[in-house]
Amino acid sequence: MPETGWRWAPAWVLAFVALWPAPGYAEGVLVLGALVAIWKLLRARFRGGMRLLSGPAWALTSVMFAAYWTPQLISAFDAVDPAKTVGDVLTDLRYLPFLWLVAASVANAESRRRTFGGLGIIVAIWVVDALLQAVSGTSPLFAMIDNAKHAISGHGMCRVEDVLAVDRLSGVLGPCNLKLGQVIASLSPFALFLAARRFGAAGWLFAAAAVGLVIVLAGSRASWITFGLVLLLSGWRLLGWKRLLGVFAFGAVALVVLTFTVPQVRERVERTRVALAGGEQHVDTALSGRGRIWSAAVCMVREHPLNGVGTRRFRENFPACDPAPGEPAEWGEGPALHAHQIVLEILSETGAIGLLLWLAGAAQAWRAWRYADARMRAQARPAMLALVVTVFPLNTHLAFYSTFWGGLTLMLCALYAGSLLANDREPTGASA
To answer: Which residues form the O-antigen ligase-related domain (predicted)?
Structure first.
């Protein structure tokens, strides 16, 4: 069977991720990549073969996209603004050919090394940049991007008030896009697997310490949970349970030290302690208003149980379901933008039909893993782990039907499908 893939596919994927700090350019890479994928697929099929993707990888990538996209379409029929919702749904079709390109970027051993290794290097660069910001107060990478933006348009990436209000490590994404912790946590498996492959257990431990420090300083407690899962699911294979318990013990001590030395970390730990004091108001305060948002999401599910209120229509429906109208919100002015929890987001925006379709997609992904052999699982493990921790339901989340986080999640789906069901096989090496 001829080798599948395309040698330039890894470059498209890495460019897409590297440009996340400049969303407009990243979106441009996505659209151009989608057009290239369509051209490559048509050309390959006319030549009589699946040169870009294996049949199973093509099928699983498409099924996982359908599990994400079809609920959007079904939710549009009785949304608050059907025309806009349908427009968003049709626009999201651009993801499908790009996902085929992403899957092609891991379709053979050499491409997998380039793509997974490149993602690990990007994470490492962002971590070093964030550590420099922790020491100096400025992210060198974001400063470079901001200066370029000033030179091009006469204004910076962020408003002055956003810069003044920032209370955590923002890194390359900047003070007006405080997603550094979640992004690093979700992509951390690629950095840890790269470190383990190059330097063994010592490399994994060093990378875990550096990444963990950045994630704690970035301030998102959801990303702490995500990274904890990464350490748990990858570390036990490499270190064993006893040494892994030592890693968590070291992490707990480090968190205590940071709590007493870094005001921002202390504030978030204190918020968590408040939740343990009991009472609905305490919990809502500790969760930055999540309790109020989740109550509103449950109301939307009750009012629109079958197909939800429409994807990205949470904010328009929030005032009607707000359990405390007129009271100041923990998150600031305006309505809540999304449900901040994957199950509640799917149920409130796409209803029970949407949840069933998501579960169907997850079942197909699990079925492919279950019937894969050991080598297939080994070559897909970094992508599998990144995807699992990103959609882990017992956590709070960014909006999966937003352009940024939806694009990240779908990319992980395609990396998983493409690497698990690649035609080639490679020997298992050192892995986390």
So the answer is: 207-359
> Would you say residue 355 has pLDDT above 70?
yes
Measure the CA–CA gap between 120 and 20, rounded to whole angstroms: 15
Q: Flag whether the pTM goes above 0.90.
A: yes
Question: How far is Cα 156 from Cα 213, in angstroms, rounded to an integer?
Answer: 28
Which position has the token pair 């996982």?
64
Summarize the confidence of residues 100-111 as an average pLDDT: 94
Compute the distance between CA of residue 257 and CA of residue 329 in angstroms, rounded to an integer.
31
Residue ranges of the domains in the chain? 9-420
Q: Which two tokens stand for residue 221?
A: 């407690």
Distance CA 177, CA 171 (A): 9
**How many angstroms separate the CA atoms of 124 and 188, rounded?**
9
**DSSP 8-state class, residue 2:** P
Q: What are the φ/ψ torsions at residue 112 (nearest 5 degrees)?
A: -60, -45
73-76: list long-range contacts, CB under 8 Å, 24+ apart.
74/307, 74/350, 74/351, 74/353, 74/354, 75/307, 75/308, 75/309, 75/310, 75/311, 75/349, 75/350, 75/351, 75/354, 76/310, 76/311
Q: How far apart are CA 6 and CA 102, in angstroms?
A: 10
Burial class (CB in 10 A: 0-12, 13-18, 19+), 1: exposed
Percentages helix, strand, coil for the chain, rounded to the nearest 5?
75, 0, 25
Q: Using an 8 Å Cβ cutoff, are 321 and 281 in contact?
A: no
Residue pair 314/80 in contact by the 8 Å Cβ criterion: no
Query: What is the pLDDT at residue 334?
Result: 77
CB burial string 274-296: b at 16+ within 10 A, e below:
beeeeeeebebbbbbbbbbbbbb
Asked if the model's pLDDT at residue 418 lies above 70, the reply is yes
Contact present, 413 and 61 (Cβ < 8 Å): yes
